[in-house]
């Protein structure tokens, strides 16, 4: 049986000063303040065409609940490179008052005009859901697109599962894993409702794009970028194109997102890194075929991550979720679960018996906010590093835009 990857978190200790030229190369994320506060005084609220002192267009704020700031605040901030990915580069910046953000420089969006880009950003800014992460602000120039996000300190699902293997490693127990799967399904259902007109509503669902809040509540990021990406590069940039019908026949549909959801489920349940898919087909573990073979032989219990396999009274529910993951990754899209079927079956999985996944505060059920969807009317490895610090797959890093 395949073993765990030997991994560690990317070192971001070398901070640099963020200046105008670096803004063009960096991506910044923002901390969640406990209350609304002003991080700077140089942004223009709701402005699409304001100009800074150097003639550069200002940031456009989409969500002021976390603070208000402008390009001058970012240019004065201490910054560190987080990584590079298929869509661009990422940077963390901490402003003078301690307010931290992540700035993403989107190099694959330079073909879109200003009006179209502004419209898409306003659409993102209107979204509100417990399990999605939307931009706080953006910056547009013809040769430059910056998206500014909230910084999530706990990092991504990819890192939690595969990157933190040191003495301080905290095991991800079964209730937390189920919570992550169900929260991911909630967020994905919402995205499929809000972007129902898109061929692939999310388009880039993978463990590096699922960030985890303090209570392991998942936040989906980097979604619905398909219409924004330069057409010639969309298949290389978006993970949904790993689905067999997309990779082999260039046919995309919402079921490509279901395929990606299935990979997430199998990755969470087995604890194995799906290197065959996140390493661009360069070999490694084909977790889908491994799981399918074991299920056909009745060896489901052998698939489970040892960190959860001994959980009392939960084996049946874990195996149920494994079967859902396998059904989501059927190579024939006609035999694959659709989004409605997938989220309904995921919601039925329990920790054990009649217990439910504990929440520290109320989070919406799968049916809240996606009523039309459920009623049937609308329905890379970049953190995996060896001990030497070299990437074991792509040369993307933990917080890259990919």
TrEMBL record:
Residues 76-351 form the Protein kinase domain. The keyword Kinase applies. Residues 1-55 are annotated as: Disordered. Residues 1-15 have a biased composition (Basic and acidic residues). GO terms for molecular function: ATP binding; protein kinase activity. Keywords: Kinase, Receptor, Transferase. InterPro entries: Kinase-like_dom_sf (IPR011009), PRK1-6/SRF4-like (IPR046959), Prot_kinase_dom (IPR000719). PROSITE patterns: PROTEIN_KINASE_DOM. This is Pollen receptor-like kinase 3.
């Amino acid at each position: 049986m395949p073993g765990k990857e030997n991994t560690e978190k990317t070192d971001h200790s070398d901070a640099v000063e963020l200046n105008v030229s670096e803004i063009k190369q960096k991506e910044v994320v923002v901390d969640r303040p406990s209350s609304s506060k002003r991080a700077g005084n140089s942004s223009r609220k709701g402005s699409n065409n304001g100009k800074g002192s150097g003639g550069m267009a200002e940031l456009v704020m989409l969500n002021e609940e976390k603070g208000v700031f402008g390009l001058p605040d970012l240019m004065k901030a201490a910054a560190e490179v987080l990584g590079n990915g298929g869509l661009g580069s990422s940077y963390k910046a901490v402003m003078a008052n301690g307010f931290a953000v992540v700035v993403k420089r989107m190099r694959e969006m330079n073909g879109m005009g200003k009006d179209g880009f502004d419209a898409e950003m306003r659409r993102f800014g209107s979204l509100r859901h417990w399990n999605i992460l939307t931009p706080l602000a953006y910056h547009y120039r013809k040769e430059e697109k910056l998206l500014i996000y909230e910084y999530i300190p706990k990092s991504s699902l990819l890192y939690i599962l595969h990157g933190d293997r040191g003495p301080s490693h905290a095991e991800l127990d079964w209730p937390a894993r189920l919570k992550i799967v169900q929260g991911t399904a909630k967020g994905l259902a919402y995205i499929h409702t809000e972007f129902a007109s898109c061929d692939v509503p999310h388009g880039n669902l993978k463990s590096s794009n699922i960030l985890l809040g303090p209570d392991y509540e998942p936040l989906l990021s980097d979604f619905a970028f398909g219409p924004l990406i330069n057409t010639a590069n969309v298949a290389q940039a978006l993970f949904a194109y790993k689905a067999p019908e997309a990779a082999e026949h260039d046919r995309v549909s919402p079921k490509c997102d279901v395929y990606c959801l299935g990979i997430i489920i199998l990755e969470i349940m087995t604890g194995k890194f799906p290197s065959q898919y996140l390493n661009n087909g360069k070999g490694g573990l084909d977790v889908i075929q491994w799981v399918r073979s074991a299920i056909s032989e009745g060896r489901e219990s052998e698939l489970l991550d040892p960190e959860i396999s001994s959980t009392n009274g939960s084996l049946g529910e874990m195996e149920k979720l494994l079967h859902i993951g396998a059904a989501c990754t059927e190579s024939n899209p006609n035999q694959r679960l659709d989004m409605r079927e997938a989220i309904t079956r995921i919601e039925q999985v329990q920790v054990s018996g009649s217990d439910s996944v504990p929440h520290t505060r109320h989070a919406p059920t799968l049916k809240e906010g996606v009523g039309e969807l459920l009623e049937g009317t609308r329905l890379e490895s970049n953190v995996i590093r060896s001990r030497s610090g070299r990437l074991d797959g792509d040369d993307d890093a933990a917080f890259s835009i990919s």
